[in-house]
C-alpha cells in the first residue's frame, strides 16, 4: 500500500524517541491524538492517490507524526482530524501529491486549526508526566488547565529554568518539549544525510541572532537562549525547516531560507498576538524557497559566465 | 453572433460563469463574502450595474469613437454605481456602512467592463441588458454559495439567524479573507470537474454516433 521511501523511514526512526516521550508525558491522550491523525491523514491521501492510481507515500506518515506531535495535548479530537485532513488535502493533494507541494503539510494543517480555533487550542495544555497521571486520569481530563507554557511565562516576564527546558520537563505541545531528544534526532538525521544540517543550523542561527539583536535593542522579552529552547523552535528547526520537498535545494539558498525562518519566528513570537510564530515562519520561508533557489542558480550562472569570460580573455 | 436568451442565461450561470470560468471579480469574492446578507446586497448591486451599463453602452455603441470607448465605458459604469451607492445609503444604511468602500469599488469589478467589451459592444440593447443581468446572477450564485459556508462556519448563522447548536465552536478563519481563497478554489475545482466530465460524456456519445461513418474533419469549436 505504501510507496517505499527509506529517507522518510529514517525520519520516523528519529521521531520515535520523541513519540515515547510524549506517551510518558501525556499517556493515552497522546496516543489518541496520534491515532486520529494517522487514520485521517493516511485516509485522505489514500482516497486521492487511489483515484490517480498512485501509491500512498510514506511521507504522509512523517507529516502525520509531525502534526500529532505539534498539537497541544488537550486538543479536541475533531479539531485534530480537521487539521490533518486540511493539510493533506489543501497543502498536498491539490498540488499533485508527494514531491509537488509548495507548503509543509503538517504546518499547513496545524496553522489552519491554530487560526480557526485559537481559543480552543490556546488553553488546551495539560500538566506533563507520569504517563498522563499528572494530568489527573489515564484518559486525560476534560476540564481546562490554566497553566502557562514556558513561552507564555516568558512573554509575561516570568523566568524559566534552563535545565527543565533542556530535559523537556515542562508543559507544551505533545512533542515539542524534549530538547535533548530533538537534538539527538538532529544529529542522527544529519549523520545519515536524511536532513540537511545547513537548514537546521541556519534556522537556529537566524533565531538566535534576531533574538540577540532584539535584546540589545532593548526588547526585554527576547531572550536568545530561552527562546530557542522554549516553544516549538527547535522542533520546527530540526523537523520542519528540513522538509526536503519544501526547502530550497542549493546551499546558499538554504542558508537564506533558514535565516529567514529563524528571524521571522522570533519576530512574530515577540511582537504579534500569537504566542508562537514558528509555524508562520515556516510557511513564509516555504513561499520564498523557490525564489531563493532561483537567485542562487542565477548567481552561480553569472559567476560561471564571468570565469569563462576571464578564461577566454586570457587565452 | 447568434444570441438566444436561454443560451446566454445558461452560459453566464454555468458554462461561462464570470467567477468560475472567466475568473473575474475575485477581489470582491474575497472581501464581501463573510456574511450572506451583505453578499446579496453587493451582488444585486453588481448585477444591476452590469445590466444597465451594458444596456446603455449598447445603445451608445455607434456614437462612441473607438479610441475613447474605455473612458466612456467607465463613465457610464460609474454613473450607475453612484446611483446604487446613493440608493443603498438611503434605503439600506446598515448594509451600506458594513460594505464600506466596496460599493464604490463595484466600478472596478472586471465583470462589468468585461461584458461591456465582450458583449454589449456588438449586440442589441435589450439582449445586452439580459446578458449583463445574467452575468451578475452567475456571479451572485457563486458568491452566495461561498458566503453561506463562511457565515455558517464562521458565525454559526445564516442571514443572521443562528442555526448551529449551542456547543458549536466558530471557525475564526472563515471570517477572514484566506478562507475565501480556499473556498473559491474548491468551488472552481468542483465546477470544472463537473463540466469536464460532462464534456467527456458528450464527446463519447458523439464518437459512438459517428462511429459508423469515417471521422469528418475537425470537430466544431465549442463556444
Give structural notes:
The complex is a heterodimer of chains A (315) and B (223). Chain A is mostly helical and 315 residues long. Chain A has a single domain (6-314), classed as Orthogonal Bundle (Ammonium transporter fold), CATH 1.10.3430. In chain A, 65% of the residues lie in helices and 0% in strands. Residues 137-144 of chain A have low confidence and may be disordered. Chain B is mostly helical and 223 residues long. Chain B has one domain (5-200). Chain B is built from 8 helices and 2 strands; from the N terminus they run αααααααββα. Chains A and B meet through helix 5 and helix 6 of A and helix 8 of B.
Q: Number of helical runs of chain B?
A: 8
Query: What is the fold named in CATH at topology level of chain A?
Result: Ammonium transporter fold
Q: Roughly what percent helix of chain A?
A: 55-70%
CATH architecture assignment name of chain A: Orthogonal Bundle
- Percent helix of chain B: 55-70%
Quick tags:
heterodimer; A: about 325 residues; mainly alpha; Ammonium transporter fold; 14 helices; globular; B: about 220 residues; two-stranded antiparallel ribbon; 8 helices; 2 strands; flat; disordered C terminus
Amino acid at each position: 500500500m505504501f510507496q517505499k521511501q527509506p529517507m522518510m523511514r529514517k525520519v520516523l526512526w528519529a521521531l520515535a524517541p520523541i513519540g515515547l516521550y510524549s506517551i510518558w508525558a501525556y499517556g493515552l491522550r497522546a496516543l489518541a491524538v496520534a491515532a486520529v491523525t494517522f487514520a485521517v491523514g493516511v485516509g485522505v491521501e489514500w482516497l486521492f492517490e487511489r483515484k490517480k492510481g498512485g501509491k500512498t507515500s510514506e511521507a504522509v506518515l512523517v507529516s502525520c507524526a509531525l502534526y500529532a506531535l505539534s498539537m497541544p495535548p488537550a486538543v479536541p479530537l475533531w479539531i485534530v482530524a480537521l487539521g490533518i485532513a486540511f493539510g493533506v488535502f489543501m497543502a498536498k493533494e491539490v498540488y499533485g501529491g508527494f514531491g509537488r507541494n509548495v507548503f509543509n503539510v503538517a504546518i499547513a494543517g496545524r496553522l489552519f486549526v491554530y487560526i480557526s480555533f485559537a481559543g480552543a487550542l490556546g488553553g488546551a495544555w495539560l500538566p506533563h508526566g507520569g504517563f498522563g497521571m499528572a494530568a489527573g486520569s489515564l484518559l486525560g481530563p476534560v476540564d481546562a488547565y490554566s497553566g502557562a507554557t514556558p513561552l507564555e511565562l516568558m512573554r509575561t516576564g516570568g523566568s524559566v529554568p534552563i535545565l527543565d527546558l533542556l530535559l523537556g520537563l515542562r508543559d507544551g505541545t505533545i512533542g515539542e518539549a524534549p530538547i535533548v531528544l530533538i537534538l539527538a534526532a538532529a544529529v542522527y538525521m544529519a549523520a545519515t544525510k536524511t536532513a540537511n544540517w545547513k537548514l537546521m543550523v541556519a534556522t537556529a542561527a537566524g533565531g538566535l541572532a534576531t533574538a540577540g539583536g532584539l535584546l540589545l535593542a532593548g526588547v526585554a522579552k527576547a531572550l536568545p537562549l530561552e527562546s530557542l529552547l522554549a516553544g516549538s523552535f527547535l522542533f520546527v528547526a530540526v523537523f520542519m525547516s528540513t522538509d526536503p520537498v519544501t526547502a530550497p535545494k542549493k546551499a546558499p539558498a538554504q542558508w537564506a531560507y533558514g535565516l529567514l525562518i529563524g528571524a521571522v519566528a522570533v519576530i512574530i513570537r515577540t511582537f504579534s498576538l500569537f504566542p508562537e510564530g514558528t509555524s508562520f515562519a515556516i510557511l513564509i520561508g516555504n513561499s520564498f524557497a523557490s525564489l531563493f533557489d532561483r537567485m542562487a542558480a542565477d548567481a552561480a550562472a553569472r559567476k560561471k559566465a564571468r570565469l569563462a569570460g576571464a578564461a577566454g580573455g586570457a587565452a | 453572433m447568434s444570441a438566444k436568451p436561454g443560451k446566454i442565461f445558461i452560459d453566464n450561470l454555468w458554462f461561462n460563469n464570470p467567477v468560475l470560468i472567466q475568473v473575474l471579480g475575485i477581489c470582491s469574492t474575497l472581501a464581501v463574502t463573510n456574511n450572506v446578507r451583505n453578499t446579496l446586497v453587493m451582488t444585486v448591486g453588481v448585477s444591476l450595474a452590469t445590466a444597465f451599463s451594458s444596456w446603455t453602452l449598447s445603445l451608445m455603441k455607434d456614437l462612441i469613437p473607438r479610441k475613447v470607448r474605455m473612458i466612456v465605458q467607465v463613465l457610464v459604469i460609474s454613473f450607475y454605481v453612484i446611483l446604487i451607492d446613493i440608493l443603498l445609503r438611503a434605503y439600506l444604511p446598515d448594509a451600506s456602512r458594513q460594505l464600506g468602500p466596496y460599493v464604490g469599488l463595484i466600478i472596478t469589478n472586471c465583470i462589468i467592463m468585461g461584458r461591456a467589451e465582450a458583449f454589449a459592444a456588438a449586440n442589441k440593447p435589450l439582449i445586452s441588458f439580459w446578458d449583463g443581468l445574467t452575468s451578475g446572477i452567475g456571479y451572485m450564485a457563486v458568491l452566495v454559495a461561498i458566503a453561506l459556508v463562511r457565515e455558517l462556519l464562521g458565525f454559526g448563522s445564516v442571514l443572521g439567524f443562528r442555526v448551529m447548536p449551542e456547543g458549536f465552536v466558530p471557525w475564526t478563519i472563515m471570517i477572514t479573507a484566506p478562507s475565501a481563497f480556499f473556498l473559491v478554489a474548491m468551488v472552481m475545482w468542483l465546477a470544472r470537474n463537473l463540466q469536464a466530465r460532462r464534456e467527456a460524456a458528450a464527446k463519447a456519445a458523439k464518437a459512438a454516433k459517428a462511429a459508423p461513418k469515417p471521422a469528418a474533419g475537425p470537430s466544431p469549436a465549442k463556444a
